[in-house]
Give the backbone structure.
Amino acid sequence: MALLRAIGFCFLLLVAPLGAFLASYPQLVADALSQWLGTAVSRGQLGLAFMLLTALCLRIDLGVRRRYQQRQALVSS
């Protein structure tokens, strides 16, 4: 559990698989999203959205890690 918390749940469960999928099939994903949303989606926009999602997940993971460390500090005191 400590290893998962150190790596980050959001990173491990969301960002890594999504990044691998986007790296493998960028044009296919862009075309599918364009069709689904009804507007043009470029590979650059996909990259930007992925970076924003990564930043959000990093913020969540850091918050989880910070709360865990604070809890551990209170328990050990």
Residues 43-76 form the longest helix (34 residues). The chain has a mean pLDDT of 87. Residues 2-76 form one domain. Helices lie at 2-7, 9-24, 26-37, 43-76.
